[in-house]
Amino acid sequence: MEKVTVDLGRRSYEILIGKGILPGLGEKLKAFGFSPIVGVISNPTVFALYGDQVLQSIRGAGFDCFTVLIPDGEEYKDYAWSHYILTELLKRGLDRNSCIVALGGGVIGDITGFAASTYMRGIHFVQVPTTLLAQVDSSVGGKTGVNHYMGKNMIGTFYQPRLVWIDPGTLETLPPRELLCGIAEVIKYGIIWDEEFFGFMSKMKVDIVGLEPEAISFIIKRSCEIKAEVVSNDERESGLRAVLNFGHTIGHAVETETRYTRFLHGEAVGLGMCLESRLSKILRLLDAEQLERIKTLISVYGLPCDLPDDLDAGNLISHMKHDKKVVAGEMLFALPERIGGAVIRRGIALTDIERALAK
Length: 359
Ligand SMILES: NC(=O)c1ccc[n+]([C@@H]2O[C@H](COP(=O)([O-])OP(=O)(O)OC[C@H]3O[C@@H](n4cnc5c(N)ncnc54)[C@H](O)[C@@H]3O)[C@@H](O)[C@H]2O)c1
Description:
With 359 residues, the protein is α/β, with parallel strands linked by helices. It has two domains: 2-172, Rossmann fold (3-Layer(aba) Sandwich); 176-357, Dehydroquinate synthase-like - alpha domain (Dehydroquinate synthase-like, alpha domain, Up-down Bundle). The protein has 14 helices and eleven strands. The strands form three sheets. The chain has a seven-stranded mixed sheet with strand order 1-2-9-6-5-3-4. A two-stranded antiparallel ribbon has the order 7-8. Helix 2 links the parallel strand 3 and strand 4 (64-69). Helix 11 (265-282) packs across helix 14. It binds nicotinamide-adenine-dinucleotide.
């Protein structure tokens, strides 16, 4: 089993990674001394695949265990469904030392963390991420939240889990398109933080998309290490953590413009990373050769890299102006200055952004 620690003083926690570790979850929970009743929050798709294993494991460790299922889909990551979870926790009599487990992708992780952070002013929660995106990104770092009809992830908290328990074996049932979404975030870490890791992603494509266990465990571990390092230094995104937004400023605008129906999140991030790298080159931060290497890697994995003809740059810019990251009217961009390093920029001239989005 591989271990990564998120170092946050008294709120530090471990990320444990190992193929086939799912049935060991219950025993691990026992060591925390949580109250005797544990809630598992999931959706019907994931629960049908892994629910029995998880319940058996938790019950086998002596806990009483119940399940709360919310429908599968980003549209259910909202306040109403978090309220539904809270009601179920109240009905079951969970107390302030209780723990709930998020079994699923980023949607389940975000809404479960949000419910955990507000139930009785905060109870324990454990992440059991089952998508690659959740294993390399959303389960680590403590951003929780739900969507509002006026904007994605607009309601939320910073609230750290007690443990992240990652079984890469769960990726074997994940649809290939969802796997690629996680890969987009892995490529992001290479670009903003670690050139060698970027090189690994270039060389090992066949093993990675083929879910070869060693390659998959390595990319999950390295991604978690990078995210843990960033979060340990800047938990609440007052500075450094913003580098993780690389690809997301344009990516979110693309998702909003296409009403979350045409691109999955990771696909929009892939496109966003290509266009933001182009912006970086326009600003003379990144050279032409590195821009080409970035675009090639993103394309090699089958992620989109060019803005489709029917997407209007003006509309995208107006969405960017309403992004959560806008402060005092200035948009925020995390931009690579080389493969393996990025900087945060605000106040970029509109004409430069327009050039980056030009077809
Ligand atoms: N908190 C953060 O730091 C953070 C970071 C990035 C993204 N997010 C959030 O994460 C969410 C996206 O997460 P996601 O990409 O994991 O999507 P998701 O949770 O919707 O999962 C994608 C699909 O895969 C299915 N699925 C999950 N695991 C499976 C498995 N092992 N086998 C088969 N099917 C499986 C799910 O049921 C769903 O249909 C968004 O809401 C986004 O805002 C949060």
